[in-house]
């Protein structure tokens, strides 16, 4: 309960005021709602010049696909990208938060961000919430110390690997990686392998689907290939579309013209004088 | 008795993009589980002339959330001396919902607005603020499964306002007919 007269916007972090009410509802037999998960197949691998990250693009809400083309490769820094699996709100919020922290750190130090910095920030946050922030991440980037690829689990443990997969389709993708990965892949071979791994996730795992997104990060820069491959195009629509011979019955129509916003410029718009 | 919290009041919301316009529609039923208590309930509210917000799910949380958002928007208007852009508003709603990550509001918002140069913007979120931006249509509520199907087949690119209104209404009415918890007609806003 707020004691002040004006409710000021909160200072940040989580707020637990509705927890008691929700617990009371749970006792009465109310089931809590399902959150949007990203089912997912996310992968990363290190090739000779840097890191390649890949992800599918399906977002699910229970058994329904709610977004057929969502973005799972999140920006962290110009040289670091992160793929997220798990609860969609958690992956988005955690990657946005760490991305802002990295930006502030860059302003402070005047240097390019390092992948281990992002890694530590993420794992500390996730461990702090003991796995309740359900975000499983594949973090990859190239910094002054070279290319790096890490996986981060919702409870805060991390692994450093030459190739990694996460998400419900991780077994399907890992099968492809384990058979075909070798050190010193070229860029095209790497992209081809990542695409194959994601496709194997898309076609064999029910929680992953739609298109393949790829992100190639090298010392020189990054290349974000959104919808690099679209193996599930929408071919079943009829070209003439729907026509409605029987119109909807309208009970009441109200048309409100929008007012033009009038701008008042004082003093002929001159700049302030000394 | 066991029930899903989202099915306590029942709702159906849909927003669609047209050519330099958007339409947002909702059903009109308010119920307490299987009993109907109102047949003219407003689920869609205006934030400013070019931004509308629809809230599905538990009606009490929808009202509280709406009041909080209007408060934040008014503060923004006082500070910035202009209206909020739809993308900014969506980020605000997402942040407010995620703040309550471990004790969430039982609401799913649908945001529809016209941005710069009359470019339509629609988005929906789950109850903890995971944004879903779409270029064609978004749905929310108990009738969402039928709405996905109806919109998927009836949607066309670049519809003019009259055709958009017709499409949205038909999709909404067809879907709520298959859902016992929503119905009693619809409210459609075309901007």
UniProtKB/TrEMBL annotation, chain A:
The UniProt record lists the keyword Nucleus: yes
CDD domains referenced in this protein's UniProt entry, alphabetically: proteasome_beta_type_7
Pfam families: Proteasome
Alphabetical list of Gene3D superfamilies matching this protein: Glutamine Phosphoribosylpyrophosphate, subunit 1, domain 1
Catalytic activity: Cleavage of peptide bonds with very broad specificity
Recorded GO MF terms: threonine-type endopeptidase activity
A biological-process GO annotation: proteolysis involved in protein catabolic process
Annotated compartments: Cytoplasm; Nucleus
GO terms for cellular component: cytoplasm; nucleus; proteasome core complex
Chief place of localization: cytoplasm
Classification via InterPro entries: Ntn_hydrolases_N, Pept_T1A_subB, Proteasome_bsu_CS, Proteasome_sua/b, Proteasome_suB-type
Protein's job: Component of the proteasome, a multicatalytic proteinase complex which is characterized by its ability to cleave peptides with Arg, Phe, Tyr, Leu, and Glu adjacent to the leaving group at neutral or slightly basic pH. The proteasome has an ATP-dependent proteolytic activity. The proteasome is a multicatalytic proteinase complex which is characterized by its ability to cleave peptides with Arg, Phe, Tyr, Leu, and Glu adjacent to the leaving group at neutral or slightly basic pH. The proteasome has an ATP-dependent proteolytic activity.
Family: Belongs to the peptidase T1B family.
Protein name: Proteasome subunit beta
UniProtKB/TrEMBL annotation, chain B:
Subcellular location: Cytoplasm; Nucleus
Keywords associated with the record: Cytoplasm, Nucleus, Proteasome
GO cellular component: cytoplasm; nucleus; proteasome core complex, beta-subunit complex
Signal peptide location: none
A single GO BP: proteasome-mediated ubiquitin-dependent protein catabolic process
Domain of life: Eukaryota
Major place of residence: cytoplasm
InterPro entries per the UniProt record, alphabetical: Ntn_hydrolases_N, Proteasome_beta_3, Proteasome_bsu_CS, Proteasome_sua/b, Proteasome_suB-type
PANTHER family for this protein: METALLOPROTEASE TLDD, PROTEASOME SUBUNIT BETA TYPE-3
Similarity comment text for this entry: Belongs to the peptidase T1B family.
Assembly, per entry: Component of the 20S core complex of the 26S proteasome. The 26S proteasome is composed of a core protease (CP), known as the 20S proteasome, capped at one or both ends by the 19S regulatory particle (RP/PA700). The 20S proteasome core is composed of 28 subunits that are arranged in four stacked rings, resulting in a barrel-shaped structure. The two end rings are each formed by seven alpha subunits, and the two central rings are each formed by seven beta subunits. The catalytic chamber with the active sites is on the inside of the barrel.
Known role: Non-catalytic component of the proteasome, a multicatalytic proteinase complex which is characterized by its ability to cleave peptides with Arg, Phe, Tyr, Leu, and Glu adjacent to the leaving group at neutral or slightly basic pH. The proteasome has an ATP-dependent proteolytic activity. Component of the proteasome, a multicatalytic proteinase complex which is characterized by its ability to cleave peptides with Arg, Phe, Tyr, Leu, and Glu adjacent to the leaving group at neutral or slightly basic pH. The proteasome has an ATP-dependent proteolytic activity.
Name of the featured protein: Proteasome subunit beta
Organism: Gossypium gossypioides (Mexican cotton)
């Amino acid at each position: 309960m707020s004691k002040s007269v004006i409710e000021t916007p909160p200072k940040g972090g989580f707020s637990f005021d509705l927890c008691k009410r929700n617990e009371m509802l749970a006792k009465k037999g109310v089931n809590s709602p399902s959150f949007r998960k990203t089912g997912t197949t996310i992968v990363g691998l290190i090739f000779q010049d840097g890191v390649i990250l890949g992800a599918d693009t399906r977002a699910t809400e229970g058994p329904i696909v709610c977004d057929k083309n969502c973005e799972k490769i999140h920006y962290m820094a110009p040289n670091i990208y992160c793929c997220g699996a798990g609860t969609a709100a958690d992956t988005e919020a955690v990657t946005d938060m760490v991305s802002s922290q990295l930006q502030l750190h860059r302003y402070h130090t005047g240097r390019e961000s390092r992948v281990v910095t992002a890694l530590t920030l993420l794992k500390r946050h996730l461990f702090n919430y003991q796995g309740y922030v359900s975000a499983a991440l594949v973090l990859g980037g190239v910094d002054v110390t070279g290319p790096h690829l890490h996986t981060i689990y919702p409870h805060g443990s991390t692994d450093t690997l030459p190739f990694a997969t996460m998400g419900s389709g991780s077994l399907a993708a890992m099968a492809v990686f384990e058979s075909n990965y070798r050190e010193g892949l070229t860029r095209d071979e790497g992209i081809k392998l990542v695409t194959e791994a994601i496709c194997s996730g898309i076609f064999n795992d029910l929680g992953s689907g739609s298109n393949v997104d790829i992100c190639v990060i090298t010392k020189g820069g990054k290349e974000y290939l959104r919808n690099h491959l679209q193996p599930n195009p929408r071919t079943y629509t009829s070209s003439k579309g729907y026509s409605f011979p029987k119109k909807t019955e309208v009970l009441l129509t109200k048309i409100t013209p929008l007012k033009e916003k009038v701008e008042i410029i004082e003093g002929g718009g001159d700049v302030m004088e000394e | 008795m066991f029930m899903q919290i989202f099915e306590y009041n029942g709702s159906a919301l849909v927003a669609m993009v047209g050519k330099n316009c958007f339409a947002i529609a909702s059903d009109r039923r308010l119920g307490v589980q299987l009993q109907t208590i109102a047949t003219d309930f407003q689920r869609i509210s205006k934030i400013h002339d070019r931004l509308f917000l629809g809230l599905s799910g538990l009606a009490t949380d929808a009202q509280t959330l709406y009041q909080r958002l209007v408060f934040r928007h008014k503060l923004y208007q006082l500070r910035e001396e202009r209206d909020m852009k739809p993308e900014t508003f969506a980020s605000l709603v997402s942040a407010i919902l995620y703040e309550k990550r471990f004790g969430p509001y039982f609401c799913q918002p649908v945001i529809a607005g016209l941005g710069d140069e009359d470019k339509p913007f629609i988005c929906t979120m789950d109850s903890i603020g995971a944004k879903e931006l779409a270029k064609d249509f978004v749905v929310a509520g108990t009738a969402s499964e039928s709405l996905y199907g109806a919109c998927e087949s009836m949607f066309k690119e670049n519809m003019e306002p009259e055709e958009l209104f017709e499409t949205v209404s038909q999709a909404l009415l067809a879907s709520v007919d298959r859902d016992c918890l929503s119905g009693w007609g619809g409210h459609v806003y075309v901007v």
